[in-house]
Amino acid sequence: MRYGHFDDDQREYVIDRPDTPLPWINYLGTDAYFGIISNTAGGYSFYRDAKLRRLTRYRYNNAPLDVGGRYVYVRDDETGDYWSPSWQPTPERELTGYECRHGLSYTKIASSRGGIRAETLYFAPLGETLEVWRVRVTNDRDTAAALSLFSSVEFCLWDAQDDATNFQRNYSIGQVEVADGVIYHKTEYRERRDHFAYFACSEELAGFDTSRDAFLGAYRGYDRPAAVENGVAGDSIAHGWQPIGSHHVRLALAPGETREVNFVLGYAENPKDAKFDPPGSQTLNKTGVRPVIERWLRPETVEQGFAGLRAYWDDLLEKIQVRTPDGDTDRMVNVWNAYQCLVTFNMSRSASLYESGIGRGMGFRDSNQDLLGFVHMVPERARQRILDIAATQKETGGAYHQYQPLTKRGNNDIGEGFNDDPLWLVLGVGAYLKETGDTAILDQPVPFDNAPGSEVPLVEHLRRSLRYTLDRLGPHGLPLIGRADWNDCLNLNCFSDTPGEPFQTTENAHGGVAESVFIGGLFVLAAKEMAGIAALHGGDGEKYRVAAEKMAGTVAEHGWDGAWFRRAYDFHGNVIGSGENDEGQIFIEPQGICVLGGVGLDDGLAVKALDSVAERLATPHGIVLQQPAYSGYRIELGEISSYPPGYKENAGIFCHTNPWIMIAEAMTGNGDRAFDYYRRLNPSAREAISEVHRCEPYVYAQMIAGKDAPTHGEAKNSWLSGTAAWNFVAITQWILGIRPEFTGLRVDPVLPEGWTGFEATRRFRGTTYQIRVVGAGRVTHLEIDGARVEGNVIPLAEPGAVVRVTAFA
């Protein structure tokens, strides 16, 4: 069943019925100001940090799921009938012609009722800390229409966690100010009012409300606000309780007439130590922000801003475009997968309908992996992200698992002890260097733990990342797992030296002797990458190659189970992910990451491991994380066994890891299996089963229910997932095989049977390469601007050039 369709020409997903199985969302903003918006206008906005700078309030885990948002109401002042063009929050009002168009950093929602059509365009302009709502109301009747338009947002008191919990304080601190028709939310949180929000309208107001009680009325919800029902705003001023922003505009429309009304919701900061006249309550820098507001209320500015946003995405997406025999591949690579990579880069795992924006900041491991799918689009932002991440590293080489984007400081609530974290920094920097050739970043001074005076060159951070692993080896010579490795829910240091007594502190858990085969494979991959980085930096990479070979030998000796790679050893030295176990005999993660590191490629172990994945883990909806599922809780394994069988880490299809198997299959030359796995997860290819999949058909989800689950095939946790970057890498760099390397651009596709080639355009280091692959085998030679070149690496060309390449397979 479909709830919409792709408009490939406009690069939009068009939802033509509002009752999607779950809210299908989009993101506003590209840099500092962001928002979530659903197909029924739900969601919220924030500046930089979804926890500490939340502009508008949202209620998670509610019924219905999508409660609170950017609502517009249209009222027929002659009949009293009113409705919301976005269906919610007035779903009882029947609409005609409902349509939501999710585009790249914008959303349009339109519908009609009673001969009146309303369309709202929501977007955040480039370089601004605000969002625009462009509302166009059209009278399709044969007679004139007298209408009222009401806007509505509910302000959050900045710190989203405190806003949702500290009511004894928050019910007393809400403050607003209305000046010249602009509603200013100026609640002082704890920063002595150095920032504020504003909500403005382009039309003369018939009234306004800033008190939720006054706007909604007692015992009412957003489905029937008293102000809208009565057709009169109360000009209320909030004093504590719940401050909101609502404008009331009256419109008189002739038959066939369209009127445009613009609303602007934004964030502003006061200058440091500023003093405003008159003293006392007037503490906002209204004079500084007023020109910004006035500019963005003008229709011509809105039109120019929207055109600029679309041009911005034109430029980003042109960095790589492909034309293959598979339309779903083209759609995802050219538009939607690339778009999701940018959103995930911006958000990490912090703010979606499944991540509240409160509990998680920017992940150390997560953000490094997100770089892999984004670095080619905006490398200058990737560079800054690398420096921000590295600055949260400890002198030991360890790292905070997460940091807050506003402060860029490590999140002490999470701390360190995820022993795979440091190694991902090496891979993130390696991807950046391959894309840009910017070796100067390696000499950039970066502090440890953001402490002034502790700065060392970035390359030293990379060295300590590897040293962190080598300083923490267990009884088998494998890396210690610490609190967890990539699988945060596999917690193997769960017992103290006294049997039966669980660890009570994080420190003890970190100090356990449980070992990770996965980190062993990851170390091999990172050490080989570091060898290349060292050579690029003028150093000797031999010691890293030796370290990689030694660890590969250890993994092969103690991590091989006969037909697949083991997962780990627990606190007591018991093997995990082995045929010796009654449950959890084979895990996906080591099969992928060990092969990516090259373990088993020369002696046949890799092929055996991948055959075991195909036989034991693959399902029509993707590859499950492990089998058999754990049937009950096991304290020695930790959180993984707390999930029901088939969900999340307990044998769910954790989509993030599936691309590792795709890449591994490509590395062994199995293009059919690699592409088959790719299509099983491809959201566009799953669109026809939306009633099963439930999540958006234009972006990847973190998890799909596994074969042990009653809801096998149902997706959860869409949007913010390393799945986005890794699938982009798998399809573009390994299956299609256009892969940046330190010395050039490699063309090494591993294609499925039946393909006869494909075409691609790739911008790389300032040069545009127009690539045509002829044949479906391995590339033997290239023809570059008519000249034959042996091998499959395109030499670097002059920036600005257009180079035509034919790869013969």
Automatic annotation (TrEMBL):
Signal sequence segment: none
GO BP: carbohydrate metabolic process
SMART domains: CBM_X (SM01068)
GO molecular function, one term: glycosyltransferase activity
Source species of the chain: Actinoplanes missouriensis (strain ATCC 14538 / DSM 43046 / CBS 188.64 / JCM 3121 / NBRC 102363 / NCIMB 12654 / NRRL B-3342 / UNCC 431)
CDD domains noted in UniProt: GH94N_CBP_like (cd11754)
Glycosyl hydrolase 94 catalytic domain segment(s): 312-737
Glycosyl hydrolase 94 supersandwich domain mapped to chain residues: 11-275
Protein known as: Putative glycosyltransferase
Protein keywords: Glycosyltransferase, Transferase
